[in-house]
Design a protein that fits this description.
The protein is of the alpha/beta class. It has one domain: STAS domain (Transcription Regulator spoIIAA), CATH 3.30.750.24. Helices cover 34% and strands 18% of the residues. It contains 3 helices and 5 strands; from the N terminus they run E-E-H-E-H-E-H-E. It has helices at residues 34-47, 66-81, 93-102; strands at residues 10-11, 21-26, 54-60, 86-89, 110-111. The protein has a 5-stranded mixed β-sheet with strand order 1-2-3-4-5. Helix 2 (66-81) links the parallel strand 3 and strand 4 (86-89). Helix 1 packs parallel to helix 2. The longest helix has 16 residues, at 66-81. It starts with 9 loop residues before the first strand and ends in a 5-residue tail after the last strand.
């Protein structure tokens, strides 16, 4: 995940209240970038309004390995503890397959597109 390629988290217009908090991700979610992804998701969880859904915008990410998946699962656990729901929006076919193979697909709400 390349931070220079992805803008920071932002509130996006949404249906629910409060508005969902969108976290754009670009590049690979792999061992080399797991630390950066972890920091980005932790910042989003700390900055999002109380009760806001966190939308991980995956339109610009096409690869995720086990380190990336573990980072997403850790963020999901933190989200639950802090009253947020972590959504994966526009996941790649590869990520969907990884979620299916690992039995993790039911861990996240999966959205076909990013709100807004």
């Amino acid at each position: 995940m390349a931070a220079e390629d992805a803008p920071g988290p932002e509130a996006a217009a949404g249906v629910g209240h409060p508005d969902p908090y969108v976290v754009p991700v670009s590049g690979d979610m792999d061992l080399d970038h797991a630390g950066e992804l972890r920091e980005t998701l932790a910042a989003a969880l700390s900055q999002a309004p109380e009760g806001a859904d966190i939308i991980v915008d995956l339109r610009n990410s096409s690869f995720c390995d086990s380190a990336g998946l573990n980072t997403l699962l850790d963020a999901r656990r933190r989200a639950v503890r802090t009253g947020h729901v972590l959504h994966l929006a526009a996941p790649s076919h590869q990520l969907l397959r990884l979620l299916e193979l690992t039995g993790s697909s039911s861990s996240f709400p999966l959205d076909a597109s990013v709100p807004g």
